[in-house]
Amino acid sequence: MLRVDDSINKRRVKISYILLNFIDFCLFIISILTVLLITNKENNLPIVGIVIIGFSLYLCFKVRNNQKLLFLFAIIGFINISIGFSDGILKGMHVAPWQIELRESVYNLYTAKSIILFSSIVNLFLSYSWINEKAVSLSTAEINRKNNPIIAYVGLLVIYIIILAGYDVNTLAGDSYVSNSNPLIEYAIVIFAVIWLYSNNNVIANTLLRFYAFLYVLYSLSFGDRSAAFLMILLYYLLYIGKKQKLSIKKIVLLALFAITLSNLIAVYRANPYLDLFSLITDTIQRGVYSDTVSYSYYASITITAAYHISDTFLPFAEYLKSWIVGGSNSEFSNLANYIKENYNLLYNVGGGLYTSYFYFGFGYLGVIFGSVLLGGVLRIVYSYNNYLTIFYQILIPVLSVRWYLYGPTSLYRSIFIVSTVLLLTCFIFDRIVRNKNISKKNQTKII
């Protein structure tokens, strides 16, 4: 009787997966139709904005039972919802006047549609059967941490140096849009996670890590760099707090509302520090889900999208991809937003650019498809295994998602998959050598 019931249940599950996959396929068709059939007129921005919001909410609901994926798509979802509402439905009501001309062009629609195409393709990779049966969802409490004082203290020395060298002090206390593009800020996050991995039961190292997290957030906020502060807050939560609590969509929503309110409060205060308390609160509430960080970055995406239609961008895009491997310190193409600003008239921006726009820069919508398939495949691989490397990636991908989704994919494909891999393997080999030497010494002692 039990075998019959099991067979019936398996059949029901299989049928439900087929139906759910059909829904995902229909959503993909809707995205294609939106891209192809909705004309590139400013009046259609609200429709595109609504579709963006719909896809974002659906992806969050879909991955709700996987903690790391939920964090990832909640962050991407917040960014997309802010764009869909503020830059789509409201047509950029809060934006700076110098942005209006380009926002009223067809390039705005190309950029917004790219988000829809991206969301629908990534969604296809995250099938319900994979999420429920194969995707890894380990808490940090389940990670096998090691104790290597040399790695821990050398790492601590490096990140404390980085925090002093990672910002240009000339930008301190300015009232303009600030987001640090220095890769050292991201590398500090990577090194912080490595130190945590190699400081198990090391009270001094963990105390210094906690203090560093506080210092990092305080220092970033003093420059007005909310995105950098958010990276550390999220990493600290995952490593030290989140392992004791189970995350839910309800908690995510509450955290998001708090984060949005705090971020907007800081933005309003920096714009006018002489406002009275009532005006400060009123202006903050009026912003709703609008985020100036997201909106400015979205505008940079529009300029990057426009460049593809103005000139041949194949070689600059190839140089940009090359910078993932060799680094971008000596390349003008490593930061496409800055490259666009300096080489194209009327395409001024203040930095950033969505993940999708960087691939659009190379091949238009075909580039967006390539970038979406690449990310979907990466997520599918990384979250299917629980080995030494993939567990580390599962932490860093959502933590650095603000950077690689909002400011360009370099943070994902270089900072995480190249820099952190080299760093982790180096630490792994060093730790093994130290342990083998200690074992050899113990054996010699026993022989004597």
UniProtKB/TrEMBL annotation:
<feature type="transmembrane region" description="Helical">
    <location>
        <begin position="70"/>
        <end position="90"/>
    </location>
</feature>
<keyword id="KW-1133">Transmembrane helix</keyword>
<feature type="transmembrane region" description="Helical">
    <location>
        <begin position="211"/>
        <end position="240"/>
    </location>
</feature>
<feature type="transmembrane region" description="Helical">
    <location>
        <begin position="252"/>
        <end position="271"/>
    </location>
</feature>
<feature type="transmembrane region" description="Helical">
    <location>
        <begin position="358"/>
        <end position="381"/>
    </location>
</feature>
<keyword id="KW-0472">Membrane</keyword>
<feature type="transmembrane region" description="Helical">
    <location>
        <begin position="110"/>
        <end position="130"/>
    </location>
</feature>
<feature type="transmembrane region" description="Helical">
    <location>
        <begin position="45"/>
        <end position="64"/>
    </location>
</feature>
<feature type="transmembrane region" description="Helical">
    <location>
        <begin position="388"/>
        <end position="406"/>
    </location>
</feature>
<feature type="transmembrane region" description="Helical">
    <location>
        <begin position="15"/>
        <end position="38"/>
    </location>
</feature>
<feature type="transmembrane region" description="Helical">
    <location>
        <begin position="181"/>
        <end position="199"/>
    </location>
</feature>
<feature type="transmembrane region" description="Helical">
    <location>
        <begin position="412"/>
        <end position="434"/>
    </location>
</feature>
<keyword id="KW-0812">Transmembrane</keyword>
<protein>
    <recommendedName>
        <fullName>O-antigen polysaccharide polymerase Wzy</fullName>
    </recommendedName>
</protein>
<feature type="transmembrane region" description="Helical">
    <location>
        <begin position="150"/>
        <end position="169"/>
    </location>
</feature>
